[in-house]
Write a structure and sequence with these properties.
This protein is α/β, with parallel strands linked by helices and about 300 residues long. Helix 1 crosses helix 4. The radius of gyration is 34 Å and the shape is rod-shaped. InterPro entries: LysR_HTH_N, LysR_subst-bd, WH-like_DNA-bd_sf, WH_DNA-bd_sf. Keywords: DNA-binding, Transcription, Transcription regulation.
């Protein structure tokens, strides 16, 4: 069976007209090189070379094959370049899972900048709950995710992506609305709206940690399942609340005031991915480095 190497060998032998020089040029022994040329002649059913005592000569068929082989090898190089260029311009998309209804400006900035710095790696975005994100990462339905945090799982890595300062949320007509800066002790003296543990487990855990640092006990006023629902309940007078500055900007409305806290507390958004036995893929490594640069 004729292989591409037979044509490459033949071109070198035809150009050198000497088996010794040809073997040195392509770094193989003379014997397998000579055998490859004889195999090529046998497969084609023609003589390509006249073997003289001190030299080789091309037959007419050899001259014709040399011309065809050169064109074939040039064509093969063009094919390789075209395929490699196509690969460089397109790679399989990264699948991004976004949990907890995150709508922070830094998330939008992260995704938009990626499209500028790595247009060859498109993104596919899917929205889901925090616990769904864990399952999707473990089953590799998504490559990477963003969340306020999920329950600890040895298969999933969670690293801080960025932080936003915590803001106090109060109805516009609330007596605390007169504050320019809100002490947490003043805010926590009023019924506090919480988050649904099933829907927003990471955000709830972070809020509880903050609250415990400033009050032994608070009066709960219910739990919201979404961030937009959280703000709506506060506007309706169901209680006061806490939210990160990114979402107070994204969900701003006339009937709710977002006031800076006197204390330096922050809410963390995490980037999550699955531990891989043999290491994570190169596009995912690049994406995680990109996220780190934004923090």
């Amino acid at each position: 069976m004729i292989e591409l190497r037979h044509f490459r060998y033949f071109v070198v032998v035809a150009e050198e007209l000497n088996f010794r020089r040809a073997s040195e040029r392509i770094h193989i022994d003379q014997s397998p090189l000579s055998r490859a040329i004889r195999d090529l002649e046998d497969e084609l059913g023609v003589r390509l070379l006249v073997r003289l005592p001190r030299a080789l000569q091309l037959t007419p068929a050899g001259h014709k094959l040399l011309k065809e082989c050169r064109m074939l090898l040039v064509r093969m190089e063009r094919i390789k370049r075209t395929v490699r260029q196509t690969h460089a311009l397109y790679q399989a998309p990264l699948s991004i899972g976004i949990a907890d209804g995150i709508a922070q400006p830094k998330l939008s900035e992260c995704l938009n900048r990626w499209r500028l710095v790595a247009p060859e790696v498109p993104l596919e975005i899917a929205e889901m709950r925090a616990r769904e994100l864990t399952s999707a990462l473990k089953s590799e339905e998504v490559d990477v995710g963003f969340s306020f945090g999920v329950p600890d799982d040895h298969a999933i890595a969670q690293t801080p992506a960025w932080h936003y300062r915590v803001m106090a949320l109060v109805p516009r007509d609330h007596e605390l609305a007169r504050h320019a800066v809100m002490p947490l002790s003043d805010l926590l003296a009023f019924p506090l709206l919480s988050c649904n543990e099933e829907r927003l487990p990471g955000l709830l855990a972070q809020m509880q940690t903050i609250v415990r640092n400033y009050a032994e006990q608070v009066t709960p006023s219910g739990a919201a399942s979404t961030l937009s629902g959280y703000v709506t309940r506060i506007a309706a007078g169901a209680g006061v609340g806490l939210a990160d500055a990114g979402h107070t900007w994204a969900l701003q409305r006339d009937d709710v005031l977002a006031l800076p806290l006197a204390e330096e507390e922050r809410i963390t958004t995490f980037v999550l991915y699955k531990h891989q036995r043999f290491g994570i893929s190169e596009p995912l490594q690049r994406f995680l480095a990109h996220v780190s640069d934004l923090s």
